[in-house]
């Protein structure tokens, strides 16, 4: 019995923590009038605590502020009056009466429409205080904000200092040393560096979170994107004007992205102000016969075969040749999204198989189409390996075929990597960067030459 109770308490605590995280995000989003993301947080709150009246009210507030008329809110709002912590647990009271029944008895439901005071409170929320209820609602939001501020700081992962000097610093050094501006800036960063990713314990925690991640439960063929057949996953876009800590916090306050914080902190370049974090899942592909052009065949057949052979070169890649330039800018920006400055890739799950290598071409190469076949470096993926490459380098990921042993956590033979594209966004584009958004992998367009 005690055992059962302990389990129940653990489950309760976990749900509570999740709930608080969503609530914190809700307050942040609502105060910035980002109603869509505020509503997403409400969904998260209601998921963690389905009968929670506070969550329901939060949802109704967003709808009211946005001017939506949502019938469901009426029902939800009646719950506000029934607010009681015990509602978060199904079961019966000490007399054997189910909590639901008891609440119906003690607090007879009424529709929001029949509660003019609450309606007014909601509508008045954005205007100067006019009635007590509006004040109550404001107090409620202030309480949420206080709770958010009192939330414990995320555990601090060591920030890896990026020693590479910035372009501005290089220019300044040159001016100090030579008394004039440099003629041409040389960018002599290495094409790619490879090192260990995270400490083993942190890595395993991150991996376990991804195995159970709700957005990866459907990493099968139907979730695959058309532009990069063979890959799926999800993508988080966010700007980083407030520095590494404030940016990591954006990931931390959302339960979906919290497990990614150690990876972000390991890789974040503090000069970068825009990020695209991609959880990339590459499914194994059927091994296809290579097209051989028989030189003795008739000319027309040879032509056809050559064309097919050309096409099959492209098909050797699960992620085709591209440079990363995926920083979504809001409408109105009159500049193309910049190329990534650096890209960091952590390999989370790697099957024993043929292929899967990250292929790279030097940054000064012309686009792949004009120099087909040239590859300057290949990085073999390996669990907990971190590859960091220049954002101006063209790259691709080879198909994964002939899986002989899948990773135990991804038994279908998937290759899973975390990709952090890091951008130095020109200050002029600041107002067009995305505060935070999550998109499905299939809706994510890389930009290639
Ligand atoms: O997983 C990798 O090795 C790199 C993936 C990549 O380049 C991308 O997702 O844009
Ligand atoms: Fe890429």
UniProtKB/TrEMBL annotation:
It comes from Pelagomonas calceolata. Keywords: Iron, Metal-binding, Oxidoreductase. Residues 299-427 form the Fe2OG dioxygenase domain. It comes from the Eukaryota. Gene3D superfamilies: q2cbj1_9rhob like domain. The keyword Protease does not apply. GO terms for molecular function: metal ion binding; oxidoreductase activity. This is Fe2OG dioxygenase domain-containing protein. InterPro entries: Oxoglu/Fe-dep_dioxygenase_dom (IPR005123), Pro_4_hyd_alph_FE2OG_OXY (IPR044862). Belongs to the iron/ascorbate-dependent oxidoreductase family. Transmembrane segments: none annotated. It holds the Pfam family 2OG-FeII_Oxy_3. The keyword Oxidoreductase applies.
């Amino acid at each position: 019995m005690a055992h059962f109770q302990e389990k129940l308490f653990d489950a309760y605590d976990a749900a509570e923590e999740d709930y608080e995280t969503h609530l914190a995000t809700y307050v942040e989003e609502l105060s910035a009038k980002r109603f869509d993301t505020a509503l997403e947080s409400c969904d998260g709150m209601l998921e963690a605590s389905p009968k929670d009246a506070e969550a329901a009210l939060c949802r109704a507030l967003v709808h009211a502020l946005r001017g939506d008329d949502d019938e469901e809110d009426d029902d939800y709002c009646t719950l506000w009056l029934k607010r009681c912590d015990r509602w978060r647990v199904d079961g019966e009271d000490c007399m054997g009466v189910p909590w639901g029944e008891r609440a119906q008895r003690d607090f007879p439901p009424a529709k929001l429409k029949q509660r003019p005071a609450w309606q007014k409170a909601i509508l008045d929320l954005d205007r100067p205080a006019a009635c007590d209820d509006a004040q109550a609602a404001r107090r409620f939001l202030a309480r949420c904000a206080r709770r958010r501020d009192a939330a414990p700081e995320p555990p601090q992962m060591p920030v890896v200092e990026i020693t590479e000097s910035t372009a501005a610093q290089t220019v300044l050094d040159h001016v100090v040393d030579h008394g004039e501006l440099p003629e041409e800036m040389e960018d002599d960063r290495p094409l790619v560096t490879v090192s260990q990713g995270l400490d083993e314990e942190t890595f395993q925690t991150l991996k376990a979170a991804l195995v159970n991640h709700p957005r990866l439960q459907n990493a099968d063929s139907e979730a695959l994107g058309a532009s990069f057949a063979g890959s799926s996953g999800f993508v988080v876009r966010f700007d980083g004007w407030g520095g590494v800590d404030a940016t990591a916090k954006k990931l931390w306050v959302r339960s979906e992205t919290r497990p990614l914080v150690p990876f972000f902190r390991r890789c974040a370049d503090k000069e970068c102000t825009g990020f695209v974090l991609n959880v990339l899942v590459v499914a194994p592909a059927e091994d296809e016969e290579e097209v051989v052009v028989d030189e003795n065949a008739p000319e027309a057949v040879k032509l056809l075969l050559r064309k097919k052979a050309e096409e099959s070169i492209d098909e050797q890649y699960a992620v085709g040749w591209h440079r990363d330039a995926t920083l979504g800018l809001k409408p109105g920006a009159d500049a193309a999204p910049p190329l990534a400055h650096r890209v960091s890739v952590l390999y989370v799950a790697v099957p024993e198989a043929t292929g899967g290598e990250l292929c790279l071409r030097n940054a000064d190469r012309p686009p792949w189409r004009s120099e087909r076949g040239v590859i300057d470096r290949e990085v073999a993926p390996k669990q907990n390996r971190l590859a960091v490459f220049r954002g101006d380098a063209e790259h691709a990921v080879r198909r994964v075929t002939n899986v002989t042993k899948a990773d135990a956590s991804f038994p279908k033979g998937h290759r899973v990597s975390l990709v952090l594209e890091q951008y130095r966004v020109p200050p002029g584009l600041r107002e067009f960067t995305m505060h935070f958004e999550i998109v499905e992998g299939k809706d994510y367009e890389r930009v290639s030459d």
